[in-house]
Amino acid sequence: MLMTGWMVAFFVIATIAIVLQMLILAGMYFQFKRTSLEMSRAIGEVQRKLDPILFRINRVLENSEDKISSIVTDAAEMTRLARGQAQKIDRVVSDALDRTRSQIIRADSILTGTLEAVEDAGVRVRRSVLGPLQQASAVLKGIRTGIDFIRGQRGSRGSSIDQDDELFI
User: Fold this and answer.
1) Where are the alpha helices (DSSP H) in the chain?
2) Helix 160-168 to helix 131-155 angle, to the nearest 10 degrees?
3) Residue range(s) defining the domain that contains residue 31
4) What is the pLDDT of residues 50-62, one digit of tens each?
5) Is 138 contained in some domain?
6) pTM (2 decimals)?
7) How far is the first Cα of the chain from the last one, in angstroms, to the nearest whole number?
């Protein structure tokens, strides 16, 4: 009986613990169910508010899809055209620089030839014009010296110092 007393006590305590656990679990179930309903209502309300916004966004995106595609296509085309034009400009500028360079070389060659011709002409003018002028000048100086010498003998025959000075000059 002693044993049965302890068993009954243990059985009663276990039953009380099981009933308490059942009550706690039932309370948790009802609380979870209430919270779940509140969350469902809150989610429904948020969804009701978001649905028109999402619908409008979806409609705008559908309407804009063709425009965005067109914009991207146009931007790609403009980039391709700009690249082509830049390459053409590069070719034109390179060609112009090459032509300019060759024209500068040609102009330098012509200018150098002209300067050499002018220098050569100057040398020839000096030889052909100045040479005879110097010779004529020397002849005139000789004649003048002769005339001065002849005059000097008539005017002063005794002055040999003047004659030497005249011949020295």
Assistant:
1) 2-125, 131-155, 160-168
2) 180
3) 2-122
4) 899 988 888 888 8
5) no
6) 0.38
7) 179
